[in-house]
Amino acid sequence: THQGPMLQQIQNCYFTKEEIENTSSRADGVDEDTESKLRIYGCEVIQHAGILLKLPQVCTATAQVLFHRFYTKRSFKTYNLRHVAPASLFLATKLEETKRRLRDVLNVFHYLDQVNSGKPIVPIDVISEPYIDFKDNTLKAERHMLKEMGFLVYVEHPHKFIPNYLQILGLDINTRLMQTAWNYVNDSLRTPLCVRFTPEVIATGCIALASRKLGIMFPDHLSWWELFDVTESQLDEVAWTILQLYKQPKAQYVSLRAVATEKSKTREDDTKRSGSRSSSEERYLAGKNSRRSPSPSPRRGSPGRDSRERSVSVERKERRDDRRDDRRDDRRDDRRDDRRDDRRDDRRDDRRDDRRDDRRDDRRDDRRDDRRIGGGRDDRRRDDRRDGYREDRRQGGRHNRRSPSPRRSLSPRRGSPGRYNDRQYSRSGRGGGPMRREQNRRRTPYDK
Q: Are 145 and 88 in contact (CB under 8 A)?
């Protein structure tokens, strides 16, 4: 009972040939050739971005299908392709559970835009105004896509039907045929076939096209495509659309503003050529107009004067509204810049306070350790130096390198001149030094 409405909603994603030929872009003055170029360019950019982001092919294919669905209902003039393409890929990463950060998606599309336009590669600053605008426009485009499609983002691809159909036809062992048909399916995503036919029809058409290219002929009397509920006219239309794609030049971004300007110039030139008058007739009309008496200015309260006054008041109101909007935008930008500067200053102050607190905690820990040990830093240094001298004398270190003279005793009397009579090492200050303390030390069983 629930499958009928669901299937009916899924079928709403497909359009007839008349609907595809009369899209919103055609109503806005975009011709068929320009719309086809923009569709191919958008799908090419999505494909390259998916490769750079290391996304699976199913995610890239989903993004391309969403791209075609949206522009079948909406115009290229109303929604910029450079915002809808990253929005399609970002939405597809969520649907296919291959999440990527929005920052990474925007960085990749910014890089591809620079490469395709021939500009020098300059990374975009994530705190700059262009990046913030790019991010906001992409998120808005994503919301518009979901709203336009009614959150019906279910996508079924024709790739999975190719191995099954070839197995039914007994050609599943021919890997070259399968790979060629698979390539044709990937190329068909650059055309509106995904919104024109179901994936079963597209898979059947790609198999037929691949078999013709490789010279694998089916029996003429056997309509094998009827096994998959596909008509011969659908098969021919799919094959013809894919073959027309290969006749197109390399995809490039087409500015609709430049196209409109070029068309207007062409129209003006045609008008001038078709409606040009002779020079004598123009001179006659110019002289006639010059001899014509000037029309008197309308009085106050006349219809002409009132219309001019109303137009002037309207223009003044528009200029006043424009100035008010500019001031409002300036105030909003200033507040946003102030908040950003405040956040940067707060982060800098926090880092400085953290470093200061760390130094203060280190000094406090040192003082606590000194109090627990029972001596200060100088006492520890003195004790270490004294222990080092004792250890050196015991092991024959640097204080016992020179052997004493046989005429000189190793233990001179207190106060007598000798090598080890150094007052600064004497505890009583009357000579002796570390040697006498070493001899008077109580011997332990560990001494040799």
A: yes
